[in-house]
Amino acid sequence: MLVADRAPRRVGAWRLRSELFADRHFKHVLLLPALLFLLVLGTLPVVYNLVLSFQDVTMQAENHAFSGLLNYRRLAGDARFWGAWQHTFLITGIALPIQLVLGLALAAFFLGDVPGKRIFIALLVLPTVISPIVAGASWRLMFDNQFGPVNHMIGWFTSSPPLILWTTDPAFVYPAIIILEVWAHTPFVFLLLLAALTQIDRGVLDAAEIDGASAWTKFRRVMLPAIRPVLMTVVLIRFVDLMRLFDFVYALTQGGPGTRSETISLYTYVLGFQQFATSYTGAVAFVSIAFMSVVLLVMLRRAAIGR
Amino acid sequence: MKLRSYVCALTLVVMAAAAMAQTPNAGQRALEEAKKYSGQTLNITWPAGVGALDAKAYTVPIWEKATGVKVNVIETPIADMFAKVTAEHRARTGAFDVVSIVPSWLADMAIAGVIEPLDPFVKKFGFAQELQGLEPAYRDNQMRWDGKIYGIPDDGDLLVLYYRKDLFADPANRSEFRAKYGYDLAPPKTWEQFADIGNFFTAKFAPNIYGAGMIRRGTLLQYFFQERFRNAGGRYFDPQAMKATVNGDIGLKVLTGMMNDQKFMPPGSQDWGIPESLNGWLSGKLAMTLWWPPVGRWSEGLQAGEKSMAFVPKSQIAGKVGYALPPGGRPELALGWSLAVASTSKKKELAYLFIQFVNSEQTSIHRVQLPYSLRDPFRASHYTSPEYRKLWPTAGDYLDILKQGANTGLIDLSIRNTFQYEEALARALQRASAGENPKTCLDDLAREWDAITERTGVKEQREAYRVWASNPNAYPH
Amino acid sequence: MSSVRERRRRKARMDAVRFVAALAITVVFLFPVYWLFMTAFKSPEEIFSNPPTWFPSRIHWVNFRDLAEDGDLRSIWNSVVIASVSTVLAMLLGTMAAYSLARFRTGGEKLAVWAISVRMVPPIVLAFPLFLMFASLGLVDTYEALIAIYVTINLPYVIWMMRGFIEDIPRELEDSALIDGCSRWQALVRVVFPMARTGLVATAVFAFVYAFNEFAFAIVMTRLEVVTFPVQITHHFQPMSTFWGRIGAMSIFGCLPVFFMIIAMNRFLVRGLSGGALKG
User: Fold this and answer.
1) pLDDT range class, residue C277, cuts 50, 70, 90
2) Is residue B241 part of a domain?
3) Distance in Å, alpha carbon of A7 to nearest chain C alpha carbon
4) Is residue B414 part of a domain?
5) Measured between alpha carbons, how far is residue C172 from residues A195, A229, C98 in Å?
6) B83 interface with A at CB cutoff 8 Å
7) Is residue B177 part of a domain?
8) Which of A195, B193, B370, B405 can pair with B331 through a Cys bridge, CB separation 3.0 to 4.6 Å?
9) Which of C211, C39, C221 is nearest to C142 (CA)?
10) What is the pTM of this model?
């Protein structure tokens, strides 16, 4: 849908042709630099990993000979791999909706007149700003069953501080990770949705008010749809980042006890960084990316249906 | 007759002269030889943080002044050391010259060609005699692979049993204990005694004092198992079939024992990592603990004024600490550090000279006594050093136990893909700690170990295991 | 009129209620941050005390003084430089690409998904090939290497976010600008950028935060010269020596760049220019 179509008829044929030319190249010129970066520094390494995954490079030997499906066969039978995916999906499935709802609620709240809004917003973004490594270690201290404030604060409501081992008890490791994750990234959702809500054209909102809509209806029927693109993108980005969750799990539980809370990122780290099973890591990585891409496409298709 | 005594005397004189000519001053020699490289730069990796201080604050300034060779200390977090050294090797960058490695990595790194054999250099610069001065356990077990020297041990790590002398000497405790258990209260010689003593103190003094507490979380836990398992007579593998035997009766007994010990340990101590266990001990909450050598020094508050050691909790138990070998008498020589030369380094000789200087008698004796040092005695001369023995009243006993422990100690498992086995072991222990059936955990572990062996190559691993098991300090004899 | 006064009183009450609510929310969210910063001032005995020490007995300023030594401050500076440059580049290239995708649907959905797939890859997996690549160019342990990498990882995020924000802007505005004789570039710069200001700021904040706090690539790509803030902090996290004092002090400093950034950019988050644009 070129603008030239809607331009007034006084535009001559020459101008039309050159505008068409500019259009066609404009959109590509815009895209090219980003494309280059992504291709060279993003996709090339992935391809390299793919190639590696068909070889047999291990800690002991850099065997670059073609080894067929050796690594993929191992992957199929690797219970730890599939377990890691389960854990990752579990954490994502719980943390994402919570972050979303909380972030949206905060954004709606701070849309209105709040004295000292600026300071509050700047402060509330801090959880996302703190380095994940530091946040993880600090929360581990907080979750400590003897020295940490969490158990003690729970003890204000119960008769005495409970002895909850947040980071080693299988029943509590997931809540611990999810609490930390929600705490750390709700501000991300909050700020971006606030930006989107702020950007909504005033005219649209005024029209809704004239129609006598209540605040809640206004929110649901007018504002949410208006920020749909950003909302969907925030969900998408959080989804992708949650799939890659590493720092918090590493700091709190290191995937323990055993592999109870091991995410796919953590398993990849163990394989690639500690064991230097380079080729196998390539296979794990490739299957992971393929897997996530499929899930993503499915999600997008369903979201697009509503577009 | 006269001829014979004449020959004897002559021989003696010649020997004395030779000995004098070879008077160990390898450190000085290294400095001299390195002078011809003046103006160049050496890159060394060292454990990050406090661990890097003995290089940055002590060794490197002396070296730079004497030789004119600049040294870049590349502080590397311990968790990333293996990966960084191997990655730089794989990329053939030559970015590192001297690398710090953990002795149990030696097999993997030597096989992968990451580090350089050092025998030619040792010969050229006459280090052999001072190498003999290394405590036998470290010298004979951690230095060589396949007959060649790959890493020079630079840290005498082992697990020591620390106990509260005052509690053990208290007459009331002694008589009550004797009445209850039928033998005298003394540092435990077996793990059954350990449990007795632990239960006794906890029953009597909890919640102020508990029988014992130690590290129970994370990957370090597997060293405690390795020690206890082998002291009980356990073997990791059947050397012929190369199948894991950790899940036999001994393994089960040891694991169950470890889990049962938890009963008299402070509540919530299943969660204990290094900072918590350190704090538990130094605050006086425990009657016994198992830890590395630095705790001996920290218990006496030796690091108190040192700004860089401000993370160590204040010791409430100075003067009350006794030292003993862990139950079974054969402590795990857990972790430790060795110095090696990267095979892709372009300055191998210079790198070696730095190692020789750092590790020499003259330099190392000072390094292990620095208040901020994390390096523990590893040379025969360290244990007998009059200076060190005077650092605090019972320093002599401390050093004696360290020496004894080094001699009877057991080295970490070191075969192909050691990380994978250790990691699997740590996970199995964590699962048991979380309440799963010990037998299941061990059976799963054995299965995992066998799978790793399959992937590594049974034949190669059998050979690597044979080499490791033939070390004098691999298994108790 | 009394109704005006009534309305004003009601508003004041609402404001007070909102303020208290905002305060409560902030306290809950910031308690862990408070705990972290307090830990920086506690002695080891206070850190491991039962019951927990809610407020340290003494403020140990020495930890801040020590930041200047040992390369702690320098690592913060390195991170600021790398994060700033890579964020500016990523925002520039990413927004341009986002415009292309939003208005022209260039490459369709497939291109967009491919872009995001780069962010899906666990960093460890990308780190090693990139390390090999940069090592062969002799660019390990340089600013350029990390800047390039962070631009790459932030691009998918920027592209997707800005695409969303741009799609929120009605096309009519650019179209009328074009009819008025603007070139496409002018339309982009003069119409779209200002309208998307809020989105630009919000997106940039997190792109910066990501580049500032990123660890996996940094640990592989740095040795000595360009050690970044997260890598330097792990030096104080060693098994035998967790130096909470230094960690806390460094963290406080590490928060400052972004904190000030947000305060400065805050006016963009307030409703502004978008009002009235359609009225003409």
Assistant:
1) very low
2) no
3) 6
4) no
5) 21, 18, 18
6) yes
7) no
8) B405
9) C221
10) 0.88
Rounded Cα gap, residues B287 and B321, in angstroms: 9
Interface of C with B in 218-277 (CB under 8 A): 219-220, 223-224, 231, 234-245
Instruction: State the average pLDDT for chain B.
Output: 91
Q: Residue C193 has what pLDDT?
A: 85
Q: Is B54 exposed, middle or buried (0-12, 13-18, 19+ CB in 10 A)?
A: buried
Residues of C in contact with B93 (CB under 8 A): 135, 140
Using CA atoms, how far apart are residues B46 and B55, in angstroms rounded to an integer?
Answer: 8
C215 interfaces chain B, CB cutoff of 8 Å: no
The SS3 call for residue A212 is coil
Portion 213-272 of B in contact with A at CB < 8 A: 217-219, 266-268, 270-271
Whether B105 contacts B422, CB under 8 Å:
no
Confidence of residue B49 (pLDDT cuts 50, 70, 90): confident
Give residue A9's pLDDT band: very low, low, confident or very high (50, 70, 90).
low
- Distance (Å, whole) CA C274 – CA A199: 6
Question: pLDDT tens digits, residue range A50-83?
Answer: 998 999 888 878 888 888 888 999 999 899 999 9
Comparing A96-100, B217-221, C151-155, which segment has the lowest mean pLDDT? Answer: B217-221
Cα nearest neighbour of B108 on chain A: A60
Q: Would you say residue B301 lies in a domain?
A: no
Looking at residue B2, what is its pLDDT?
67
Residue in B281, B311, B317 to test binding to C, most C beta-carbons within 10 Å: B311
Tens-place pLDDT, residues B381-434: 999 999 999 999 999 999 999 999 999 999 999 999 998 999 999 999 999 988
- Sheet of B152-153: strand order equals B70-76, B41-47, B98-101, B338-341, B152-153
Kindly indicate whether the domain formed by C65-270 is annotated with CATH number 1.10.110.30. Answer: no
The DSSP secondary structure of C17-58, one letter per residue, reads HHHHHHHHHHHHHHHHHHHHHHHHHS-HHHHT-SS--SS-SS
Nearest CB among B108, B219, B430 relative to A59 is that of B108
Q: Which of A38, A113, A148 sits opposite C118 (nearest CB)?
A: A38
Helix (H, G, I), strand (E, B) or coil at A57: strand
Q: Where are the beta strands (DSSP E) in chain A?
A: 56-57, 62-63
Number of domains in chain B: 1
| CB contacts, 8 Å: A281 with chain B | none
Q: Report the CATH number at residue B343.
A: 3.40.190.10
Domain residue ranges in chain C: 2-60, 65-270
HSE-CB at B322 with a 13 A cutoff on CA atoms is 15
Boundaries of domain holding B364? 3-150+338-374
pLDDT-derived band at B155 (thresholds 50, 70, 90) equals very high
CB-nearest partner of A60 from B112, B419, B428 = B112
Which of chain A's residues have a Cβ under 8 Å away from the Cβ of C21? 109
pLDDT above 80: residue B261 = yes
Cβ of C48 and B313 within 8 Å?
Answer: yes
**In this predicted structure, which of A11-20, A228-237, B432-441, C97-106 has the lowest mean pLDDT?**
A11-20
Mutate to test the interface with C, among A6, A16, A129, A248 (most CBs of C within 10 A): A129
What domains are defined for chain A?
2-39 (no CATH), 71-301 (1.10.3720.10)
Helices B438-456 and B418-433: crossing angle in degrees, nearest 10, is 170
Shortest Cα distance, chain A CAs vs residue C70, angstroms: 19
Phi, psi of B117 (to 5 degrees): -65, 135
Which residue out of C45, C72, C124 would a mutagenesis test of the A interface target, given it has the greatest number of A Cβ atoms within 10 Å? Answer: C124
